[in-house]
Amino acid sequence: QMVAYLLYSTFLTAFVYPVIVHAVWSVNGFLTPLTTDPLFGVGVIDFAGSGVVHVTGGFTSLIASKILGPRKGRFDERKSQTGSTLEVPKKIEGHSSSLQALGTFILWFGWYGFNAGSIHQVSTANHANIASLAAVSTTLGAASGCVTALGVSALLALRRTGDVNWNLSDGLNGCLAGLVGITGGCGMFEPWASVLVGSIAALLYLSSSELLVKLRIDDAVDAIPVHLFGGLWGVIAVGFFASPRRLIDIYGHATHPGWFYSFTNGGSDASLLAANLVGLLFILAWVFFTMTPFFLMLSFCGWFRADSLEEIIGLDPGSGNEYQATGNVTSEHLEILRQ
């Protein structure tokens, strides 16, 4: 319901996000790398928010989806009151691939400001170099995610059905997963690492999307695979691939670089990886213990799920708008809603 959107948006932005942002990005946060004595000597490094922004939002979506339950007809027959479980879940397609593509490109464009702008200023050549690297990483992560998701999806379709099916939706969501994955380390990944991180994010998107279906969790827009799993990987990837010279550019030191660089130099320093894992545990715990009771309260009060009839014919006819939907909407449906 619209009231649920308004309430949880207010609660999330006013009480949940600020605590996480302060913990990781404030100089006074207990997870910040900016203090003189950071966690494990390095702190949680999440340059533009794979964890702070996307894991927070993605895990909130998972909690909400679980409490709200699936759409009618997604996993069971819609005709009966109880509904017999479908052997093959019914896929409910979006109504416009063109609008999905447009939205993805708008997000991709905005991501350049989101990632490159996280350096906060370009008053020196060093700042400009960091911002430009973040922009390059954003491009490579998104492009590799799109190509990987589109190609792997086509190969899976070929194996399952014998026909190649180029699924545009998978490609676009793979692009977004690559963007989410690259966000945490966009200012400290070398270009080759950006391609790798984006590709792995796309693979995680495809696998986690299928996992949710098997678990009977209905995510209408695949927000959970894109933001939660892409964000988790993005924070972990910093622990593996944070480049020493890029860390020096940003933080002035590289005492604990990504594990990959430590390993290739004969070491085994996983301090950054360990700190980032602790940061993820904190984010997941804070979101779980704040948003779970909040969504349960919304559900208990009857403010969460839309009316059954509205769910079938769409929310627009019952929202007070003059919009008249087509298809399954009849004058009888509208009359029932008005009554």
Note down, in words, how this protein is organized.
This protein is an all-alpha fold. It is built from twelve helices and no strands. The chain starts with a helix and ends with a helix.
Helix and strand topology:
Elements (H helix, E strand, L loop, with lengths): L1 H24 L24 H19 L28 H20 L8 H37 L6 H16 L7 H24 L8 H19 L2 H8 L7 H6 L6 H31 L6 H6 L17 H8 L1
Helix pairs in contact: 1-10, 2-7, 2-10, 3-4, 3-5, 4-5, 4-6, 5-6, 5-7, 6-7, 7-10
What string gives the helices and strands in order? HHHHHHHHHHHH
Helix content: 55-70%
Shape: globular
First-residue to last-residue Cα separation = 18 Å
Strand content: under 5%
The count of helical stretches stands at 12
Radius of gyration: 22 Å
Poorly predicted sequence stretches spanning 5 or more consecutive residues: 322-326
Structural class of the secondary elements? mainly alpha
**Total strand segments:** 0
Describe the biggest sheet? Answer: none
Arithmetic mean of pLDDT: 89
